[in-house]
Amino acid sequence: MKNALVIDLEAEKQEILKRYRALLRACKPTMQRGDKKEIRKAFDMALESHKNMRRKSGEPYIYHPIAVAQIAAEEIGLGTTSIVCALLHDVVEDTDITLEDIEREFGKKTAKIIDGLTKISGVFDYNSSLQAENFRKMLLTLADDVRVILIKLADRLHNMRTMDFMPRQKQLKIASETIYLYAPLAHRLGLYAIKSELEDLSMKYLEPDTYKYIATQLNEKKAERTLFIKRFVEPIDEILAEQGLSADIYGRPKSIHSIWNKMKSKNIPFEEVYDLFAIRIILDSPPEHEKADCWKAYSIVTDLYRPNPDRLRDWVSSPKGNGYESLHTTVMGPKGQWVEIQIRTQRMNEIAEKGFAAHWKYKESSNDNGLDQWIMKVREMLSNPEANALDFLDDFKMNLFSDEIFIFTPKGALIQLPLGATALDFAFEIHTDVGAKCIGAKVNHKLVPLSYKLQNGDQVEIITSGKQAPKEDWLNIVVTAKAKSKIKSSLKEEKRKIAETGKETLERKMKSLKITYNTDNLNKIAYFFKLPSSQELFISVAQGKIELKDLKEYQASEKEIENNKGNERSEHQQIEALLSKVKGPESDTLLIGEDLQKIDYTLAACCNPIPGDDVFGFVTVNEGIKIHRTSCPNAAQLMANYGYRVVKAKWNKQQELTFLTGLHIIGIDDVGLINNITKVISNDFKVNMRSITVDTDNGIFDGSIMIFVNDKDHLDNLIKNLLQVKGVTGVTRFDA
Predict the structure, then answer these.
(1) In whole angstroms, what is the distance from residue 342 CA to residue 340 CA?
(2) DSSP characters for 591-649?
(3) What is the set of active-site residues?
(4) Quick one: what percent of the chain has pLDDT higher than 70?
(5) Which of 180, 298, 480, 517 has the smallest CB count inside 10 Å?
């Protein structure tokens, strides 16, 4: 037996060396003298420090850092420092090696990047989320060194590719975090290939059924698609060659996630998604002819096939903020279906595939770089440290995925803002003081309010007044993180001034009532008036909401408070207690559907789960445990931010209970259609309807029905039967 093990280890050793050599081949293009030695040193250190560790799949742990380094080199195009950091990214966290050791061996820069990649450990405040804090720490290093994020993305991509052996709960949490934060980040940094793969892999775990369904459908139609693309491309190829343009043309299928998004947003079945693939034309042009060649290719394509006038996107003249340049158009193909065409040069293509890393390569040519501006913005956001990492996360997230609009200043300078930005956002974008004093704006010479949503190409002039100051409701008007954080910090400053005066007044009043002025008593008074903090107490005093007579009332009930205080438990303890009660000794899965007395849970209204749905429990402070579907619109955010509050849950076979759910039915209006639908529901299914709303518009029937069903099979069956009613073309479940 011992012998077998030795051979096994020997084989593993060969495999590790094989992978290491493949990594070196991937690093070839960026290597300089002495680099190989550095990489070897890092590899040896990682190999030694991880030597007794294994991954969940049973493989040697070292496979993971090698794979991350490989992704960083091959798919992102990073250089030696990054490869060294990728090889060592887990050693400080998981082994005895310290940052000092790394700095001694590899220098300050490497140590700094690895510090950015190392999770925060130690005691933690439960009101915030460890995840959010780690993310924020990572972004702090982004401001100095973008490689931290790029290596983190490579790490995340490898973890997502090898997540099969993880427990389901871990899969859900990691996939949610990926879709919530990492895919948008990859998008923002221009790494489109990685962004699509992260989205697809997240979907594979969060929506396994839909994922398999779309993947199978795509596979079945593959040969048909290839033939169509070949015929579609031939004439374009010929004419491009005639005109002396050298180009590669190929079709690529859309990612599963983007097809699914289309199905959801347009509420259509798979068969009706017309752009299942895009045709890419990649021109080999010298930098000075790029723009002209792209438009030349555009005119060749649109001479052959008729374009959809609304679908031209020109990111060649004004590139996206993450550096993406390309010309997109949608044309009508020979068989009467729309085909998306993307026209770009090899340089543009490399930037689209490798994003940030490719940028540095071409940096001299592009004068002002959108990505540098974005990093400046991230720096600005971080320079105003919000108390709560979660708020920061949500603000940051909002600015990741939004498409840009281009706005002009009165002098004609171009400013990029996210889609949905208002005149007030524009004011803050120009300067904090302009934003703080803004009272209105002129858009294209017409007066508009602060909340006016800007359109692409607007020219905006801001009107200010010395008397204006930021207001609380401004937070609902702005969408950019910069404006939000500036408004918050000036409101805080304002509050601080008011609190100062309130503090003096309160001190005088307490003296007159002979109450000692100390932190303990201040907290008790704040608690008595149901105020969250002593600062809020000072503000209430300053605004005259708390008078001397109120303080006397406090004095009288002081004893009562003392008694109550003992029963009050902190949120943290409540959550802890609930968690340990739920998880119990025998199992960590919450069974729903029985033992209602034992554990207090409610079904979340945002997604109305029914038995048979894939669900998880979320521990709340005041409402016990809420059960959500894993596909709930809020699920990704809850799991990404509050992973520790999530408990596994599964349905228990139970007595016939009924659950409310909604069905959306569309079809062709016909005499007796409603009658036939209600007949199916009430006759065949012993199903109770709670409400039905119907709208018919020029022969199109559109109805929503709220019904009570027993479980998911019951519902699926009902949908199947409704689809057989003559005239019904679609039935979908919707959340309340």
Answers:
(1) 7
(2) EESS-TTTS-EEE-TTT---TTS-EEEEE-SSS-EEEEETT-TTHHHHHHH-GGGEEEE
(3) 93-94
(4) 82
(5) 517
